[in-house]
User: Which sequence fits this backbone?
C-alpha cells in the first residue's frame, strides 16, 4: 500500500504533463491555505475557551449564591466543556505542526529542483571526534 501512493503520484504527473516543480508549488499552495485555516481555527478555539470559562464562572457564581451546593453542577459541566475544547485544540495544534512540516518539505524539494542545497545538512555531526582521520576512511 505504501508503494502505491508514490506510483500514483508519478502516473498523475505523467498524465497531466505537469512538471515536478508545478506539482510541489501546487501542494505548497494547498498546505499554506490549510495552515491559514488551522491557525484561524486555533484563534477561534482560544476565544471560545475564554468565553466558556467566563460564562461558567458567572453561572456557577449565580447558581451557587442562589441555590448553594447545586452551583457545583455548572462548574463540573463547564470544566468538562473546557477539557473537550482543550483536546480539540491539541489535535488542531498537531495538525498545524504537521502542515508546517509538509510546507517545509515542499520548500526543500523546490530548492532541490533548482539545485540549491546550501540548507541541507552535511552530516558533520556524525564525524567521530576522537579520530581526525576518520573522514578519510572508506
Assistant:
Amino acid at each position: 500500500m505504501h508503494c502505491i501512493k508514490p506510483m500514483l503520484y508519478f502516473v498523475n504527473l505523467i498524465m497531466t504533463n505537469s512538471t515536478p516543480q508545478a506539482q510541489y508549488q501546487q501542494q505548497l499552495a494547498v498546505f499554506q491555505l490549510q495552515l491559514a485555516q488551522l491557525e484561524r481555527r486555533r484563534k477561534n478555539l482560544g476565544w471560545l475557551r475564554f468565553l466558556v470559562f467566563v460564562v461558567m464562572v458567572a453561572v456557577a457564581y449565580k447558581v451557587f449564591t442562589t441555590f448553594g451546593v447545586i452551583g457545583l453542577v455548572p462548574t463540573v459541566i463547564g470544566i468538562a466543556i473546557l477539557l473537550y475544547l482543550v483536546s480539540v485544540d491539541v489535535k488542531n495544534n498537531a495538525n498545524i505542526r504537521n502542515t508546517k512540516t509538509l510546507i517545509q518539505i515542499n520548500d526543500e524539494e523546490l530548492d532541490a529542483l533548482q539545485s540549491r542545497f546550501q540548507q541541507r545538512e552535511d552530516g558533520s555531526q556524525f564525524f567521530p571526534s576522537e579520530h581526525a582521520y576518520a573522514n578519510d576512511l572508506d
Notes: DSSP finds three helices and no strands in the chain.
